[in-house]
Amino acid sequence: MNKTLSMISLATKAGKTKSGEFMTEKEVKEGNACLVIVAGDASENTKKKFKNMCDFYKVPIYFYGDKDTLGHAMGKEFRASLAVTDAGFAKGIRKHLDTEENTIA
Predict the structure, then answer these.
(1) Which stretches make up the Ribosomal protein eL8/eL30/eS12/Gadd45 domain (predicted)?
(2) What are phi and psi of 59, to 5 degrees?
(3) What beta strand segments (E) does 4-102 contain?
(4) Which sign does the torsion angle of CA 46, 57, 31, 91 carry?
(5) Closest by alpha carbon to 81, among 32, 53, 40, 31?
(6) 64-100 pLDDT, tens per residue?
């Protein structure tokens, strides 16, 4: 497992992530989300919705991995989206995302 997924896993264990479309949207709109990650294989509709929402609320968004990978890192079933609610974890995850090749900021 790579460093990004390890950080997501740690953040989840610490209770600093919310996953699923509804919870991710709620965290962004309430101003709690420090970072949003959407699976690369999520529907175009989902990607567009979160991209527009994150632009509006000025939350960094990344498209990363696939639903199975994100879900597995969180110890759950597949997940199309997740919000990181802790600034420290968000910073660490972004650092790893920025150094990896297959991400789009």
Answers:
(1) 6-90
(2) -115, 130
(3) 17-19, 35-39, 61-64, 81-84
(4) positive
(5) 40
(6) 999 999 999 999 999 999 999 999 999 999 999 988 7
Name the DSSP class of 102.
S
pTM of the predicted structure, to 2 decimals = 0.93
Q: Among 51, 38, 40, 47, which Cα is nearest to 81's?
A: 38
Q: Alpha helix (H) ranges present in the chain? A: 3-13, 21-29, 44-57, 67-73, 87-99
Q: Report the amino acid identity of residue 10.
A: L
> How large is the C-alpha radius of gyration of the chain?
12
Instruction: Quickly tell me which residue has 């991209």 as its tokens.
Output: 51
Cβ within 8 Å of residue 101, ≥6 positions away: none
